[in-house]
Amino acid sequence: MSSVADLTPPIAPARSRAAAERALEWLIRALQNVGAAILAILFLIVMAAVVRRYIFGGGFVWSDELVIWLNVALVALGAPLAATSALAMRFEVVVQHLPALGRRIAGVFADAVAVQGSLVIALGGAAVVSLVGGNSTVLGLPEWLRFAVFALGGGLTIIVVLARAALDRSVLEAALSGLIGAGLYMAAQYPLGFVDPPSLVAGVAAAIGLLLGAPLPHVLLAAVSATAPFGGLLPEPAIVQNAASGVSKFLLLAIPFFLLAGELLTAGGLAERLVRFAASLVGHLRAGLAQTALVSSVLFSGASGSSVANAAFGAKVMAPALVARGYPKAHAAAIVAAVSMLDNIIPPSIAFLILATATNLSVGSLLVGGFIAGGVLAVALAVGIHLTARNVVDAAPRASSAERARSFIGALPAIGLGVVVVIGIRFGVVTTTEASALAVAYAVIVCLALRSINGASLIDSLRKSATEAAAVGMLIGASAPFAFLLAVDRISDQVAALVTMLGGGPYAVMLLANIVLLVAGLVLDIGAAILLLAPLLLPVATAAGIDPIQFGVILVVNLMIHGLTPPLGILVYVVSGVTRTPAGAVFRAVLPLLFSLLVALALLAIGAAAWPSLSPYLSGVF
User: Fold this and answer.
1) How much is the pLDDT for 118?
2) Average pLDDT taken over every residue of the chain
3) Which residue has the higher pLDDT, 311 or 224?
4) 251-291 pLDDT tens trace
5) What does DSSP assign to residue 213?
6) Which among 56, 605, 558, 595 has a CA at the least distance from the CA of 351?
7) Which of these, 116, 122, 375, lies nearest to 224 by C-alpha position?
């Protein structure tokens, strides 16, 4: 018979686990604080340069290069957070349908892929440090510093990934992930033969990594590394150099600033003022609260640029209100998810910033196209909401003119941010990055004037925005070597042949390009899809006579629709997680609204394809 002592669990392992959890939490908090500090410094430098340029008539010679270096550090040091949080961009649909043992095995291999990708960054970065000499001509700093932070970030990512695996599953499984990841890394160092093209190996490796549920940026890095034994032209130092170059662009600074502006608006309660104004406009209609969610999303789009941020806000604020009015929970979540996709269409849009980075298209022209496309999509969603809310009695009394005026005045601070940003960019008053920094300054000043934020909420907004920006930046950096590999292997020629299979006319090219995008969007995050496919498809569309700006807008619209489609459906998963509604039920409920969006996409695509033949007749009208 066992004694009481035999049945009592040992205290030492419990204490060790608690100590390990505290150590990991301390490391994560430290990285968040470092990211917040870097983001704050970035903002101060850019704002100082803006003030000096527009008030004193000259900028700082060193400011542009310094902020680019700091942004590289933000991405590299934020990589560990992006690899282990909800921002990891994991394709987990297949894994979720496996039995318990299968999920554990897949988890071991997924973390192994993350370790392999991190080793590429860590050891490749260290190799570049040893090879690169000289100093920056402007800053006078050693050039190897930019790559040293990547090496440090890769090493920290391995620690965080394996520590998280040990705490969430077991030390044994974490050790297996580390060993397998190191084995995969070592296997990529020895030549095995030649595959033509080597990017075929990268594609297969990436598909396997995605199916296992590994973080997308690390999947891309590991896949490019896997081509080395088969004739790939990118050794590890070149992979890291490509990744660093991918994020070393001044335009990309707009991403963390727009994310920060949206966080401040939400934390400061200005987003709720937009909801009240929207309710005064459409709350009296049938499905008035659902239409309010739509109009609120349109208004919030002008200040945020992040569909995920809008989805999280709507899930917290609008979804419970919709359920209280009688909407089924899944239907309420579907409405919030669907209207949130507008944030990456209506300017300012982070998706358009990524597209401009990948293709050198004009940001200002893309913003104008986003307004037009956003209007068409908003109308389509309004019709879809109207038709799907037949069994819900949801109409508030019509707001009086005085009530509308008061709510409009209350919402003006948030509306003003979007107006200032878009007009400033469109008419060339400020650059995109300067406009994004001004958006942050505007949000801070307004929120402080209204006393709606304090120091704690400001720091929390900095932490969240820095982490999100690091995740986006890591994806951009990891996509750069993969895109380079596709370019070297002339995959664009094969894509061009596929897209022109039915002929080289604008209608055939537009049809096939949209089919390619709809299929690719099922398995690729929107950022990765833009970075990988836009450079391949845009030349084909331009050769067919399609306006490149119009095609770029349609490309983003097409890929944003996949925020609502399985298996990735990031907007559905965000809303599902916040509202605690099964994702499958939300995917089913969103189908009618998804159909409305596809109809709108078809209309936009037909219009863009017809524009070359119509523009001579319309040039005298417009």
Assistant:
1) 94
2) 82
3) 224
4) 788 888 888 887 887 787 777 777 777 777 776 677 777 77
5) T
6) 558
7) 116
| Residues 557 and 604: beta-carbon distance below 8 Å | yes
Asked if 375 contacts 302 with a C-beta cutoff of 8 angstroms, the reply is: no
* Sequence-ordered list of residues with C-beta below 8 angstroms from that of 112, at least 6 positions apart, any chain: 176, 177, 178, 180, 181, 184
What DSSP letter does each residue of 239-305 carry, written as one string?
HHHHHHHHH--GGGGHHHHHHHHHHHHHHTTHHHHHHHHHHHHHTTSTTHHHHHHHHHHHHHHTT--
Task: Residue 486: name the closest of 197, 121, 193 by CA.
Answer: 197
Read off φ and ψ for residue 156, nearest 5 degrees. -65, -35
**Using the 8-state DSSP alphabet, how is residue 562 labeled?**
G
Q: Tell me the two tokens of residue 69.
A: 């270096």
Residue type, 60: F
CA angle at residue 188 from 182 to 194, to 5 degrees? Answer: 165
**Which pTM was predicted?**
0.81
Helix (H) or strand (E) segment spanning residue 59: none
Q: Which residues contact 568 (CB under 8 A, 6 or more apart)?
A: 91, 93, 521, 522, 523, 524, 525, 562
Q: Which residue did the predictor score with more confidence, 408 or 209?
A: 209
Question: Chain centroid to CA 140: how far?
Answer: 33
Q: Give the span between the Cα atoms of 587 and 594, in whole angstroms.
A: 9
Element (H, E) at 23: helix 11-55
- Give the CA distances from residue 527 to residues 309, 553, 592, in Å, rounded to whole numbers and listed in that order: 15, 14, 25
Q: Is the bond into 612 cis (omega within 30 degrees of 0)?
A: no
For CA atoms 82, 87, 93, 99, the dihedral sign is: positive
Residue 90 makes CB contacts below 8 A (sequence gap 6+) with 110, 213, 214, 215, 216
Residue ranges in 562-590 assigned as alpha helix (H): 570-579, 583-589
